[in-house]
Each structure stands twice: as C-alpha cells, then as structure tokens.
Model the fold of this input.
Amino acid sequence: MWDFLNLFSVPVLETSIRLATPLLLACLAGLFSERAGIFDIGLEGKMLIAAFFSAAISFNTGSVWLGLGAGILASVTLSIIHGLASITFRGNQLISGVAINFLAAGMTVLIAQSWFKQGGRTPQLEGAARFNPIEFPFAETFMPVPVAGPVYASLIGGHALLVYVAIAMVPLTWWVLFRTRFGLRLRAVGENPAAVDTAGVSVVGLRNAAVLICGVLCGLAGAYLATALQAGFVKDMTAGRGYIALAALIFAKWRPWYALAACLLFGYLQAIALRPDLLTAAFGFKVQIQLLDALPYILTVVILAGFVGKAIPPRAGGAPYVKER
Amino acid sequence: MTIMTKLMSAATGLALTATAAVADPAIIFDLGGKFDKSFNEAAFNGASRWAEETGGTFKEIELQSDAQREQALRRFAESGANPIVMAGFAFGSALSEVAPDYPDTKFAIIDMVVDQPNVRSVVFNEHEGSYLAGIMAANASETGTVSFIGGMDIPLIRRFACGYAQGAKAANADITVISNMTGTTGAAWNDPVKGSELTKAQISQGSDVVYAAAGGTGLGVLQTAADEGILSIGVDSNQNYLHPGKVLTSMLKRVDNAVYKAMLDGTDMETGFNVMDLSNRGVGVALDENNEGLVTYAMLSETYAAADKIISGDIKVHDYMSDESCPALDF
Done:
C-alpha cells in the first residue's frame, strides 16, 4: 500500500509540476494558434530560440527580466515569419512550421558560438540572471508538519515565478476564448472564416493576433527552460517538448482546462519515469522506462482513434483563407 | 537546410583545394565543434600541442553535417594530408569506405574500430577511469548512496556506469549505486532539463555524489548538484572548473594524447588496434586547484593504489561491452 502511495509522493508531484510547466505554456500557445485555424508545428523552434535569447541577454545584462523580454521578442519574431508565410502568403502551415524548427535549431547554435565561443551554449547564469524558486512565507516553519508541510513548502510553494504564470494562464485563456468578443471571433475564424469575413471582421488580423499570442507564450516557455529550470542554454535543449505539447493539445481536445490536465498528466508520466525504483516497488516487477516515455504519444493516438470521446480539430485548421471574389 | 549544406560543402571544397602538396597531418572534428569544452576540444588541444612542440602545421575542418564526413575524408586524402585523424565514432562507416581507396595514406579514428590495414583505431578503457571515479565517489559519500546519469542508453555509456559501480562497491561493499539513463534517442545528449530532474530524483533517493556521462545533459546534472549542495563528477574533459568546489573530479578521456601521438608518429604511424587505458594515461581522474579541497589524502591514496593494481592486472575491471552484462549494477 505505502509502496503504491509513494508513486504520488511530494517529490514526484513537485517534479511533475516543473516538467509540466513548459508543456502547458507551449500547449496554450498552440491552442490559441490552432483555435484560429493556424496549425503550428513550430512550437519547438520558438521555445528553442526563446531559450537561447533569454539566456544570452540575461547573461549579458545580468537581468532575467530583460532576458525574458528578449526571449519573447525572438519567439514573436518567428511567429511573425510563420504568420507572413502561412497567413499573408497562404503557404502551407506545416511546412512553414518545420522550417521554423530548422531555422531555430541552426541559428541558436550559430549565434551562441559566435557570441560566446563555448561550443554553441551560453555561459552559466547566476543570481539575478535567473528565475529563482519563490519560498513561501513560513515554509521552513511548516516543513515538519506531516503531509501539509512538504506540500505547502515544495509542492505549492518553492517554484519559479513562471510556473505560477503558466497556471494563471489557464483560466485567463479560458476567459479570453469563451467570455470575450475577441475570443468568440478567434474561435469562429478557426471554424468558419468566411462567416467572420462576411460579418466585416478581418480574418487576417485575427489570425495574426492569435499567432502573436502563440509567440508570447512560447517565449515564456523557452525562457522558463533556460533561466528557471536551467542556468543557461544548451543546443537543442527543448528536446522535443514542443511536440509533446502538440500531443497534449490533441489530448486536451483544444480546450484550456483539459490542456492543464493533459500537461499535468504528461508531466507526471515524465516525472515517474525518473523513479524506476518506486515503480518497481509499487508493482512488484520492472517497468520499462521506454514505455513511460512513449505513453504520451500512445495516449494521443488512442484519443485520436476515438476510443475516449472524439477529438475534433477546428474545422478550418490548416487551410489558408482565400476571400471569395 | 540543403542550400546551407551545399554552401558549406562548397566552402569546404575551396578551403581544402587551396592548401595542398606537403604531407601535413589533418584532423576532422565531429559535429559538436572544436570548442565544445569536451571531446572535440580535447582533440583540438592535442593537435595544437603537436603544432607548438614540433613547429609543424596541420589542416583541420569542423563538420557541419553528417553528409560531409566522406567528402572531407576524400578531400584531405586527395590533397596529400597524412596521417588523417578523426574524432568520433560516427566516422566509422565513412572511413571503411574511404580507407581502401587511399592505401598510402594513414588514418586514425578515435572511439571506433575500423578494420583496415592503413587505419589506427583508438579506443579508450572508460570503465577503468570510471572505476577510479567510483572509488572517489564512495569515499566522498556520507549517505552511502551514489548515482550515475548516462546520456543515451547505449553499451558505451553502460560501460561507464558499470565501471563506476564496480569502483564504488570495491571501496564500500554496502554502498547503493543508482543508475539512470536520460533516454534512448540522440536528444538524450542535449536534455539538461531532464538531467536536472534526474539529479533531484536521485537526491531524494539519498544520493550525494552523482557522476554524469551525458554530454550536454551532464551540464544540467552538474548545475543541479551544485545548486542542491551535493557533489558531482564530470566526464571526458576536465570539468572541475565549471563549479569550483562542487565537482569532486572528472573522469578524463585523454583524446588529446591520442591525437598528439598520432600526429607525432606522422606517416610512420603504426596501424591497428590501439587501446588507451590507465597504463598509458589514456584515461584517469582530474585533480586541480578546483577540487583539491574535496579530495582527502585517504581518498587519493586508495585511488592511486587501485590504479596501480589495475595497471599491474591485480584488479580486473569488468568491461560491459565484452559480454553485455555488469556484475555490480543491474540495468
């Protein structure tokens, strides 16, 4: 029994939250973009470039806030390129996204090498150049209290600021999408852009706005990786998180609260994969870690196949809008 | 991407045809680039040392893509460079193709065995160096638990882990050794975030010395170990300086010595199988001003004693790659 409960112990859940945060930010980024009808394979690339520029500018200025700004700016720049290619010039959204991933992977290493000469990484960040964990008041005092103490000190508290920002983004996204006029139009543009156009609202404008929001959120995700979880940039450090976020988005059926649940689940799967000892103790046999690593994708396929409800993407997703003449 | 590759290869071609004639040695760096603070940089340092000591010059190229391997090899061979040294196991298949076409040129490949009459294959006994790292870890540990984080789960990395576990258990039979691999794909070499979380997971299991053999992922391991106040062990190059006073030691792989030796031997280089181990200082542990406060006299004497016994053959460190199993660690 205890062995099984250990699977949900505070250190494991704490790790889950840390690992879920970049997924959640990227997932919400994809949500805005795809709800407006623009598929975005380039989440990975945007996170990567944001990770690099946030680390590089943090190091050069000593301020993590300037770094965060630079990361968001870099990510938004890639968003603008994506918008230009797939909205203005009506190019293929998937190809544009793949191009962005390549661009980011190559450019970050190239610039890092020419600026810092450390083999494509940035120097280590220290002190104010990093987002440090926020200690909640009296965390140390409450620590000895069983269960509640560690939960308060390290599960609820003790995370970097961006973790709380990411979680706050969930209700905010829900509110914007489902309770504002902008959100209604944004969703409509992903379902039936012609109707929105007939109503006299700019399809191009709305889609660009969605893609820009996507850029900002990816910027936060990248900055979190490089300045909060890590103390600097290493080449390809996003390690496929952008794709897992896309899987989470499908798993969440393009809904904000589901996205939170999906990202926490995927984060938990990644966290438990780090503790094979607990798994062996709980189940009594050796669980293959590779299976856990693959589980997010397997679950997504299951959802896509329609076993657990149906995942219906925005109807106009992937198709550039051409005004009728 | 393709245009980039083409431009790069065109530039490579020009650079290589511009310099020709004399039999200078040449070196090819792998994709990590020659300033990677680790493997390739060690190779570059070895070549530079040769150039400084002999006053000679060498040709060099940093690869930008996998497609350039064979091309770079052929260009160097055509231009008369001899010997041609390449750093990295990934050159294996390209070299097997190229070597028979240039029987008068000598090649040296590091970390890989290519069975051709004009090739020197240099491999390192990483398990011996890791064994010494394990002894130091067991001595430094106060909790009785030490741990290992590997990059991609391949036999070469398990060899590091296995040597480390054997060393730790030799120094303290009751010690617990935890081992985790970052992943099973190439992304596992560059995932410092996962490296950090693995380190934290191992700390929660009681580990207070963590050995990282994981490329870029290892930087995350060393960072987290320093942040959380436990000791870490670096790999390949001397990484003690990354967090002075927090890195117990680094398992050195003297790629620089292998390159230096190949260039020094020049065109008369002996070919065949070349093992770099403790006896010829091919592997070892790093001691410098950054970790002198961490290494006690007792730890040092035990480590040196073990090194002597390995060299004399009294201690046999089991090589994971010899039979794909490890007596000290269960994967």
User: Anything to note?
Assistant: Chain A is about 70% helix and 0% strand.
